[in-house]
Automatic annotation (TrEMBL):
Coiled coil: none annotated. GO terms for molecular function: acyltransferase activity, transferring groups other than amino-acyl groups. It comes from Brachybacterium phenoliresistens. It comes from the Bacteria. CDD domains: NAT_SF. This is Acetyltransferase.
Length: 146
């Protein structure tokens, strides 16, 4: 991975931005606590191992306050997922810091014009739009229910 951005997004005092994955239990707990769909320990292990990049934010007490990751091929296609901030740590810019770090790492590693996507749930849409994301119309995100 690339070196840290020389001008990272400022964090509140005592918070630390790390380019590492949380452990499986923390990942599952933060997804649940932030209102994302719950995942099994087996799914968490796969997510931890197979991601292109991770960014975590630790609170002053060392607990996981926010996270996000990128999946993709590392050259053209990048999909940002699992952007989550614990409710106790929201409205402090942690999600923005995670997003800016991940986007900066993509920009540093990819050839020109990478395809960066995400699925925007209602709570995150304002943040994503403020970072330049637009609706992908006429494309439409789809899933195969299981």
């Amino acid at each position: 991975m690339t070196e840290p951005d020389p001008t990272p997004e400022p964090l509140p005092e005592g918070y630390r931005l790390l380019r590492e994955a949380p452990d499986a239990a923390e990942y599952c707990a933060l997804r649940r606590d932030a209102g994302l769909s719950e995942r099994s320990a087996e799914q968490a292990v796969g997510a931890l191992a197979a991601s292109w990049a991770w960014t975590s934010v630790r609170a002053p007490d060392g607990t996981l306050a926010a996270m996000g990751r990128v999946i993709g091929d590392g050259t053209w296609y990048f999909h940002i997922v699992d952007i989550a901030t614990h409710p106790r740590h929201q409205l402090q810019g942690l999600g923005r810091a995670v997003m800016r770090d991940l986007i900066g790492r993509i920009d540093a590693a990819a050839p020109p014009h990478p395809y960066i996507t995400l699925m925007a749930d209602p709570p995150g849409r304002r943040l994503y739009r403020s970072l330049g994301f637009v609706d992908a119309a006429p494309s439409l995100g789809m899933l195969l229910p299981r």
